[in-house]
Amino acid sequence: MRYKSSLVIPVALLLLPAACGDKQTAPSPGPVQSLAVPASAGSRSPNLAEGPDGTLLLSWMEPAGDGHALFYSEFSGAAWSAPLEVARGANWFVNWADFPSVVPVSAHLFAAHWLVSQPAGGYAYDVFVSLSGDRGATWSAPQRPHRDGTPTEHGFVSIYPHADGAGMIWLDGRKTAEKPPHAGEIMGMTLRSAVIRPDLTIQDEQEVDGLICDCCQTDVGITAAGPVAVYRDRTAGEVRDIFVSRASGKDWDEGRPIARDQWNIAACPVNGPTISASGQDLAVAWFTATGGKPVVRLAFSGDAGETFFAPIDIAVGNVFGRVGVATLSPGTAIVSWLGKTGERQAEISVARVTADGIVGTPVILAKGQTISGFSVPQIVLVNGQLLMAWTADTEGESRVQSALIPLSLFDPPI
Questions:
Q1: What sign does the CA torsion over 17, 18, 24, 26 have?
Q2: CA-to-CA distance for 239 and 233, rounded, in angstroms?
Q3: Could you identify which of 171, 288, 310, 384 might form a hypothetical disulfide with 261, taking C-beta atoms 3.0 to 4.6 angstroms apart as the criterion?
Q4: CB neighbours of residue 308 within 10 Å
Q5: Of 88, 82, 145, nearest to 111 (Cα)?
C-alpha cells in the first residue's frame, strides 16, 4: 500500500497543515463543520443509521434518573433535530462495546433495540426491540426477538431493512447454558437472525452460524442481491477471522472467511467488522492481530459479497481498531479507525482507500480530545460529505459529538 503522513484536526476541528511527504501539493480542504448533538452530559455510545429513503438517525444513551434512556435525533441536512426518547430503564445492561440503536427500516417504520440485564446478573442480558409505524411518534411495547429463556448473553445486534419489517442478527448465548455432548466440543456463542413484522410477530428465526466470537460487533449491508452479514467467526482451534454470510430468500448461506488472517486468540478481541454496500459493491473493514501485529484491513467486493478482492492493510502497529467504513464509489471507500496514543487513549483516524491498494493521507480527527480506546466511532456518507459521530471525554465526563467532513479533505482526489 502507499501511505503518507497525516493531516491533523484538533479539538476545535481546525485543519493544520500536513507534512506532505512525497506529495507535490497538499489538498485544499473546505472547512470541517462541527454539528452540535442535542445530547446531555454523560451521553455515550452513538449509532448512525441510514434508511432506504435517505433518513439518517443518530441514537445514543444518556443517564436518566437511576438508569439510562435511549434517545435519537434526525439529520436535516444541516443540523440534528430535537432529541426524542424511545425508552428508559433502571436495569439496562450498559457496555461500551454492545450498545443500542434506532434504525429507519422504511419510510415510515423505525426499529429500536436496547439491552436489559437478567436477574442472574453478569453477562446474562436480553435484547429488547420496539417498533414505530409513525416515524417515532409512538413506540410499541418492547419484546425479545429470542425466545430461548436462558440466563445467557444476547446482544451485539444489527437491524436492517427487510421486505416484511425489520430484520435482525445478534449474538446468542443459549448454547453456553448446555453441556457439550462430546469431549472437546465448544458450546459457545452463536449468530442468530429473525424478522419482526409491523404487527410484532416474529418470523424466520434461525441460526446463522453455530460458533462465533463472543463479543464482537456485527453488521449488515443491503446489496442489490439482498442482505449481507459480516461477523467474527470462531473455530474450535480459536481462530477468529472475519466471515460473511449472504441471505438467500428466508435463509442465510453458510458463513465463509473474507480473508484467511488466521488470527489465533483464545479470547474475544471485542473488535467487530463493518460493512458498506451500494448496488453490487461492498466494502468491509476490520481489525486483526495475527502474530501479535495489530492491523486495520479493508476488502472490496463487486458481486454483492460472492467474492472479495485481496485485503488491503490500512494501518499497522499502534491501532485499537474499532473500524468504520463508507463506500464512495465502486472500488473506493473511506475507512475510520482508532489510532493508539496511550494504553487506553486513542485518536480517530480517517483515510480514503482505493481497490488498487492506495491508502490516502490519514486525517486525524479530534486529536486534542480525550477519546477512549473503548469506544466505537461511527461514519456515514451524506450529501457528498462524511458525517462522523463519536464519544468524547472532557474532564472525566462523556458526551456524544459529531462533525461533517468534506471529501475534498481526503486524497487521492476523486
A1: negative
A2: 8
A3: 288
A4: 19
A5: 145
Q: What is the distance of C-alpha 405 from the center of its chain?
A: 19
Nearest to 187 by CA among 175, 174, 197: 175
The three-point CA angle 395-398-403 to 5° equals 110
DSSP label at residue 325:
E
Q: Which residue has the cell 439491552?
A: 115
Left if phi > 0, otherwise alpha if psi is -120 to 50, otherwise beta: which for 45? left
**CB distance 376 to 388 below 8 Å:** no
C-alpha cell at position 117: 440485564
The residue assigned the cell 499497522 is: 316
Q: Which residue has the cell 414505530?
A: 132
Beta strands in 65-215 (DSSP E): 67-74, 84-89, 101-104, 110-117, 125-132, 154-162, 165-172, 190-196, 202-209
Contact status, residue 370 vs residue 331, Cβ threshold 8 Å? no
Q: Go through the domains of the chain in sequence order and give each one's CATH number.
A: 7-409 (2.130.10.10)
Digitized pLDDT (tens) for each residue of the chain, 414 residues in all: 544 445 554 434 433 333 333 333 333 446 789 999 999 999 999 999 999 999 999 999 999 999 999 999 999 999 999 999 999 999 999 999 999 999 999 999 999 999 999 999 899 999 999 999 999 999 999 999 999 999 999 999 999 999 999 999 999 999 999 877 776 677 899 999 999 999 999 999 999 999 999 999 999 999 999 999 999 999 999 999 999 999 988 999 999 999 999 999 999 999 999 999 999 999 999 999 999 999 999 999 999 999 999 999 999 999 999 999 999 999 999 999 999 988 888 899 999 999 999 999 999 987 767 888 888 999 999 999 999 999 998 778 999 999 999 999 998 765
Q: pTM of whole model > 0.70? A: yes
Question: Using omega within 30 degrees of 0 as the cis cutoff, is the peptide bond preceding 17 cis?
Answer: no
**Which residues on adjacent β-strands are paired with residue 391?**
400
- Amino acid letter at 390? W
CA 36/CA 186 separation, integer angstroms: 47
